[in-house]
Design a protein that fits this description.
Radius of gyration of chain B: 25 Å
Number of strands of chain B: 14
Order of helices and strands of chain A: HHHHEEHHHHHHHH
Radius of gyration of chain A: 19 Å
Structural class of chain B: alpha/beta
Helix content of chain B: 40-55%
Number of domains of chain A: 1
Oligomer: heterodimer
Distance between the termini of chain B: 93 Å
Shape of chain A: globular
Strand content of chain B: 15-25%
CATH architecture of chain A: Orthogonal Bundle
Order of helices and strands of chain B: HEHEHEHEEHEHEHEHEHEHHHEEEE
Number of strands of chain A: 2
Helix content of chain A: over 70%
Chain lengths: 286, 394
C-alpha cells in the first residue's frame, strides 16, 4: 500500500511539474525563446486568483477561464512588441530574447510586489481528501493532476492532428520552410506565445491551491520549469512530460526515504547527471 | 562701484555669513533629528512577519516623537529593504553607518540575517538591540555590541513537550527548516524530547524553496507520532499543514514555531488552521507595563492586531531610548555599558542580558488557533482558553 501511495504522490507531484514546465516548452519549441518571465506569469496569475477569490468567494476553478482569456490577450499583446522584433536577428535572437524576457520578468515581479505585496499566500480550496483503504487522495492535487493530463492531451492532439498544430510544429522545425509552404509564421508565433502565457497563468491559478506563493517565487518556478524542460529535451513535448513525471516520482521517493534535504537538491543532481550522459535530454536519449 | 568698494562689501558679507554660521551651528545640531537606522525584510520569505516587527518600531518612534523625542531631539527612522538576504543586509548596514551616518542602529528581522551583521556591529562598535535574533550563538564570548531583544530560540515551543508528555504523548516527529533560528529550535526540541523520555520517531531538515512535503508527511504518517513539531517560517508552515491533510494524517499535537501567529496563516489554511499550536513572546493580555497602551496604539495606527514581532520591534526602540536617556548621550560605548548593567521593563517582559548579551528575561507562552482565532493557552493564570487536543486536521 505504501508503494501505491508513494507512486500516487509522485505522479501527482509530476502532474504539477507538467503544468509548470509545458508552457515554457511550448514557447521554446516554436520560437527558440527561453521565456525567463515564465515564473512571473505563474505567480501573477496565482496572486490575482488569491486576491479575487478571497474578495468575491469565487472558486479558483471559475477564475481559471478568466485568467486563461486575460493572459492569452496579454501574451498576444506582448509578443509583437517584445519578441517578434527579435525573430529576424538571426543567431543573436536567442541571446537577445533572454535579455528581453529577463527584463519582462523583473517588471512583472515589481508589478506583483506593488499590487499584492511581498507576502506568501495560498487559497484554502478543495482541502479535503478521498480515502480508499490506506490510500489517500487530495482533491486539490487531483484537480491539478487532471488539468495537467488535459494540457498534455490538448498539446498532443492539437500539435499532431490539427492543421494549425501542424503548422506550429512546421514553424518550429523550419520557419523558412514553413513560410515557403504558405504558413503565416508570424501568426503562428503570436499564437504560440499567447497560448504559452495563458497555460503558464492557468498553472498559477491551480498551484495557488496547493502551495504558498509570493512575488519572489517567480524565479524559483522559472528555474524549476527550466530544469524539467532541459531534462526532457527543449521543444520535446512527450520528453518533458516524461521528465516531469520521473522527477516527481524521484522526489517523492527521496523525500520519503531520505527527508527534505535530499528531495530539495535532487532535481539539480539529476539535471547534471542527464546533461553529462545525454546532453540532448531524456527523450532523445530514449 | 569701484573694485575696492566691491571687495569691502564681499568681505563684509562673507564675514557676516561666517558669524551667522557659528551662531547657527549649535542650534541646528540640537534640532537635527536622531537618525535610527535598520533594515527590514520588506520583500522575500520573511516579509509577512518582518512587517509586524517594523510596525512595532514605527509606533515606538511615533510615541517618542509625540513626547518630544530623546535628549530633546526628534527621532527619524531610516529603513532599507534587505530582501530577506543576509548579504544585502550587511551591505545596507554598512551604508547606514558610513553614508547615512546613523546615530543609532536596530537589528534586522531573523536570526540568520542578524548573524551576518553581528560581526559588523562588533567591528564598527555600535551597541545594537537585536529584536528578532533568537538564536543563542550570536551572544557568545567575544560579542560585545549585540544585545538579544527577544526570547532565545531554545525556548520556542519549549512548553509543549512537557505538557503533551504529562497528557500521555510518547512519540514525537521534528521537522526543521535549514535556517539559523529554526535549526537551533530543531536541535533543542529533539534534545528536550529525549530528556523527557519521549521517542523521536522521525526527524528531518529541509530548505526553501519548498520541497515536496507530501513525502515527508507520508513518512511521518507511517511513524504515527503523537506530537509533530515544525521549526518553521511562514511559507513552509503553510505547506506542511496542507501536505499532512493531503496525506490524511492528523497528529494529536501539531505545533509550528513561526507562521501560525501571522494573520495570513488562517487565510491560507482556513479550517485546517484550527488546533495548530504555536508560541508567542508577547500577548495582548500580558500584564507587563504598557502592554495595554501598546495594543491600543498599534491597532489605531496600523488597523491590525499587533503580534510578538511587533512587541519585539516596539520593545527594542523603547530599550534603546531608555539607554540614551539613561546615559544622556549617543555615545555607543556608554550605551553598551548601560545596557549590560540595567534591566528595562518592556511589553515582552524584563529586558535583561548576561555578559554576552543573551536575553535572561524573556520567555515564550503557547497559543493555539481555535475557530480561526489565536488563543493564549499557557501560562494558566493568563490563558484565554484550554489547549484543545487532538488536532482535528479538517
Amino acid at each position: 500500500m505504501l508503494a501505491v501511495q508513494l507512486l500516487i504522490n509522485g505522479v501527482l507531484l509530476g502532474g504539477t511539474y507538467v503544468l509548470i514546465a509545458q508552457s515554457l516548452n511550448l514557447i521554446f519549441g516554436v520560437m527558440r525563446v527561453v521565456n525567463l518571465a515564465h515564473g512571473s506569469f505563474i505567480v501573477m496569475a496565482g496572486l490575482f486568483t488569491f486576491w479575487l477569490s478571497a474578495r468575491t468567494g469565487l472558486s479558483p476553478l471559475i477564475v481559471l477561464p478568466i485568467v486563461f482569456v486575460v493572459s492569452f490577450v496579454v501574451g498576444g499583446l506582448l509578443q509583437p512588441v517584445l519578441i517578434e522584433p527579435l525573430m529576424n536577428q538571426g543567431r543573436r535572437a536567442e541571446l537577445l530574447s533572454l535579455m528581453v524576457t529577463f527584463g519582462l520578468d523583473y517588471v512583472l515581479v515589481q508589478i506583483a510586489l506593488h499590487v499584492w505585496g511581498a507576502d506568501y499566500v495560498s487559497l484554502p480550496y478543495l482541502q479535503s481528501t478521498w480515502t480508499f483503504g490506506a490510500i489517500t487522495l487530495s482533491k486539490a492535487l487531483l484537480v491539478v493532476g487532471l488539468f495537467a493530463v488535459g494540457i498534455v492531451a490538448l498539446l498532443y492532439f492539437g500539435l499532431n492532428y490539427t492543421s494549425f498544430g501542424k503548422s506550429l510544429l512546421a514553424a518550429s522545425q523550419s520557419p523558412v520552410g514553413a513560410a515557403c509552404c504558405g504558413i503565416n509564421v508570424r501568426r503562428v508565433r503570436l499564437f504560440a506565445f499567447a497560448l504559452g502565457v495563458a497555460l503558464a497563468s492557468s498553472a498559477g491559478t491551480l498551484l495557488i491551491m496547493i502551495l504558498p506563493m509570493a512575488a519572489e517565487s517567480a524565479d524559483n518556478l522559472t528555474i524549476l520549469a527550466f530544469v524539467i524542460v532541459a531534462l526532457g529535451g527543449l521543444g520535446e513535448y512527450a520528453g518533458v512530460t516524461i521528465a516531469a513525471l520521473l522527477l516527481g516520482l524521484a522526489q517523492s521517493l527521496a523525500g520519503y526515504f531520505f527527508g527534505g534535504d535530499v528531495a530539495n537538491v535532487l532535481p539539480f543532481v539529476i539535471l547534471i547527471a542527464v546533461m553529462l550522459l545525454w546532453p540532448q535530454g531524456l527523450r532523445r536519449a530514449a | 562701484m569701484t573694485n575696492t568698494h566691491l571687495l569691502h562689501r564681499l568681505a563684509w558679507a562673507s564675514g557676516m555669513a561666517m558669524l551667522l554660521s557659528f551662531v547657527a551651528t549649535p542650534g541646528q545640531a540640537a534640532d537635527k533629528p536622531i537618525l535610527i537606522g535598520a533594515t527590514s525584510s520588506e520583500t522575500g520569505p520573511f516579509a509577512a512577519d518582518a512587517e509586524y516587527n517594523l510596525n512595532g518600531m514605527k509606533l515606538a518612534i511615533e510615541e517618542a516623537n509625540a513626547k518630544g523625542g530623546w535628549l530633546g531631539r526628534k527621532l527619524e527612522l531610516k529603513i532599507y529593504d534587505d530582501e530577506s538576504k543576509p548579504g544585502t543586509a550587511v551591505r545596507l548596514y554598512t551604508r547606514l553607518i558610513t553614508e547615512d551616518k546613523a546615530d543609532l542602529l536596530i537589528g534586522p528581522y531573523s536570526s540568520g540575517i542578524t548573524q551576518a551583521i553581528a560581526p559588523l556591529m562588533n567591528k564598527q562598535q555600535y551597541a545594537v538591540i537585536e529584536p528578532e535574533a533568537s538564536i543563542p550563538t550570536i551572544y557568545v564570548p567575544g560579542n560585545k555590541w549585540n544585545f538579544q531583544g527577544v526570547a532565545s530560540s531554545l525556548t520556542y515551543l519549549e512548553g509543549l513537550l512537557p505538557l503533551a508528555n504529562k497528557n500521555g504523548a510518547k512519540t514525537v516527529a521534528v521537522l526543521g527548516l535549514k535556517s539559523a533560528f529554526t535549526l537551533a529550535c530543531y536541535d533543542a526540541r529533539i534534545e528536550q524530547a529525549e530528556k523527557l523520555g519521549m521517542k523521536v520517531v522521525y526527524k528531518t531538515t529541509y530548505s526553501l524553496p519548498e520541497p515536496d512535503f507530501a513525502s515527508m508527511a507520508l513518512a511521518i504518517k507511517n511513524a504515527q507520532p503523537d506530537v509533530v513539531l515544525g521549526c518553521t517560517y511562514y511559507p513552509d508552515a503553510v505547506g506542511l499543514v496542507k501536505a499532512f491533510q493531503a496525506q490524511g494524517f492528523a497528529p494529536k499535537y501539531f505545533a509550528e514555531t513561526v507562521g501560525p501567529v501571522a494573520a495570513a496563516y488562517t487565510k491560507a489554511l482556513g479550517p485546517l488552521a484550527n488546533g495548530i499550536i504555536s508560541n508567542t513572546g508577547w500577548w495582548h493580555n500580558f500584564k507587563t507595563p504598557g502592554s495595554k497602551e501598546f495594543t491600543e496604539h498599534y491597532k489605531a495606527m496600523f488597523k491590525q492586531d499587533p503580534d510578538y514581532h511587533s512587541a519585539a520591534g516596539y520593545g527594542a526602540v523603547k530599550v534603546l531610548g531608555a539607554a540614551v536617556e539613561g546615559t544622556k548621550s549617543l555615545d555607543q560605548d556608554k550605551i553598551r555599558v548601560w545596557l549590560h548593567a540595567n534591566t528595562v521593563e518592556t511589553v515582552q517582559g524584563p529586558f535583561k542580558v548576561d555578559a554576552n548579551g543573551l536575553s535572561q528575561g524573556f520567555s515564550q507562552s503557547l497559543v493555539q488557533i481555535q475557530e480561526g482565532h489565536l488563543k493564549l493557552v499557557t501560562p494558566e493564570d493568563m490563558a484565554e482558553a484550554k489547549l484543545l487536543v487532538p488536532y482535528p486536521g479538517k
